[in-house]
Design goal:
alpha/beta; Rossmann fold; 3-stranded antiparallel beta sheet; about 40% helix
Length: about 150
Amino acid sequence: MKILIVEDDPKNASFLSRGLAENGITFDVAGRGDEGLGMARTAAYDLVILDVMLPRVDGSTILAAIRETGRETPVLYLTARDGVEDRVRGLELGTDDYLAKPFAFAELLARVRSVLRRSPARQPDTVRVADLELDARRGGHAAVCAG
């Protein structure tokens, strides 16, 4: 598992880095929005932990850019914006989860695991039961298997 953390507060980035490392999770850190956007576009990540208020390029722009590429990389917003309108806007823009600062690391880790369990990358392309096969790449069409 590899996570991209896009967080401009060095204290929060260090806290996240230390916690993820202690849990055996590999990660990269970007301290500015433009840096995070470049990393998200050029490398494959299993999850992006994304602050919303970032210098140079904000989190909403990064999220939109990730979604425009067609990648289904899960994104977890981690932000000081904790109003209902903010959470709704983030979810409607395409974030997979939303956690307001300040937060407990145990909750963040639980949310990371939850988002990754639901990730399309973890879902099989085909499911076979007895002589029936469902192919998600073909819109869930079923076929009877020979043999």
